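User: I'm designing a mutation panel for Cd2+/Zn2+-exporting ATPase and want to avoid disrupting the core. Could you give me a predicted structure to guide residue selection? Please restate the sequence first so the numbering is unambiguous.

Assistant: Good idea. Sequence first, for numbering, then the predicted structure tokens:
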Amino acid sequence: MNRVQMWLRGRWAVPVVSGLLIVASLIVGLPVWGDVLMVAAAVVAGWNIVIKAARALMAKVIGIDLLVSVAAIGAVIIGEYWEAAAVTFLFAIGHALESATLTKTRSALAELVAVAPDVAIVLRDGEQVDVPAAAVATGETVLVKNGAKVPVDGVVIGGNGALDEASITGESIPVEKSDGDQVFAGTVSRGGFLQVEATGVGADTTLARIIHRVEEAQDAKAKTQAFMDRFSAWYTPAIIVMAIVFGLVTGDIVLALTLLVIGCPGALVISIPVAIVAGIGRGAKDGILVKGGEYLETSAKITAVALDKTGTLTEGRPELTDVVVLDDSLDRADVLTWAARAEAGSEHPLARPIIYAARTEGLVLGDLPESTEPVPGKGILATVDGHRVAVGNLALLATEGIVDDGASAVLDRLAAAGRTPMVVALDRRVIGVVAVADQIRADAPEMVRRLHAAGVKKVLMLTGDTERVARAVAEQVGVDEVRAGLLPEDKLAAITELQREGYTVAMVGDGVNDAPALATADIGVAMGAAGTGVAIETADIALMKDDLLKLPQAVSLARRTVRVMRQNITIALATVAALLAGVLLGGVTMSIGMLVHELSVLVVIVNAMRLLRRHRDARHEPPAPAPRPAQQPLTHAA
């Protein structure tokens, strides 16, 4: 296809040709030829408009195109050739500008598609082979050189380098990668050389899932948009009826046709979707994926945010801090060994630091337990070499009928220090207490402050940990309310209670034990979703980077988007009202009405495009992690 053909099929061909015919008509100035050129201008600009109107009528839809078509055809019939040409010409220009600016609002999606890599360098039979990115097989080794795009999701198996992950997480600073680190398709190497084992290719990459999610989200309608669509379905026929009535009563056909033109709800129809597209696009650029317009609108109403503690307010990497011996016949190594052997059969996150500490200290853990019985919210029961071992809280001891033997005082002391203590019992007698602690995220207090600044009334912590530990963390973070010792069903009940009290609730959790609460909350938020395909697809909001400050940024973006939606509706309604008054009072012609109408459409679009700018809160970098204080183990002298 040559350039002329491409231009003729472009968005500006129709308005340019129509405009040239109007100019030629004005230059010729002759009654017959001038009128012919003016009618030709109206036909060129109005042909597609009439076709669209006819297709809409066949689908039983009365839209803007029908109003313009009737007005233009009527103007030609009564000899108002200039008005017919001006109305269709201005409408064609408005449509072209609308198309161009809407393309701009979808720029985030276009940028995501642009970063999708086309070629991969794969190591096959010891040779470097260039293949299409989609042709890479799972398990193959891909080479990523300086300046190249990563073509697959994978794990680094050799080399070192720095990757720009802005397209995935919104993080502008390159991230260092080495053996064992995860990499994502579409990220760009800023130095070094990496060998990557492909784990996700083609449509299974994180980038592909993001593109699919953004496409769906930008097309999904908000509740307000759905209402405006229903309103327009009644409004447009009402304008036609009003024009007919005024034409019959006054006998002024020009007035009736002018009412049709100025009554076009173009700005009203586009006011909501253009804001949603821009808002979701801005979020995608910043590593915030919103499921759709409805969820963006709901997020703007959030008044309460519920946060899990472990892995959300804390780093999620607990370490063993204390071993307290309560049986004089045993020593520290004995207590830790029994605890580690019992936890070897547990999937609980707190089992790992105990096992890791025991192995680090060179303790022999032997075989796995003969049996393991997790007790949700209480701990674990295990049979180890024929011995009954319990590791958990006081409720677990009560369940087993074990006397705490002074363990409660130790538990209180450790919990007050912000640690999670667990009693260790061997054959129905308490032998000691082990405790683990998790580092509070450096940006957690700032996140709470920004949520309040964004208009969130209540920030609360929902955790299965003990009351003392939870409160110690809460005091450092600054949350408004703490609910501790919760089972998954208790978290669900807490969310339901907040909703009954009138709060619009967002829940942030890990998606596993928090799944019921996440599903029940008005908005479920998944953090660090870049490496989790399920989170990208299922969460109402997926924060691609494991960054707490993305949460208030998401709430702020939603509120700004809804503000723009309301502004656009006001602009559209005010324009139509002013034009109607101008026509009825005199002074507003058909062409002037169309000009003002198209200007209002552009104002609405430009107003929405403000959302594409990076907001000042998004430019604030999270605070640097504070140095972790040394934690001395508490041991009881034997």
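For picking mutation sites, this is relevant: The radius of gyration is 33 Å. The first helix runs from residue 3 to 8.
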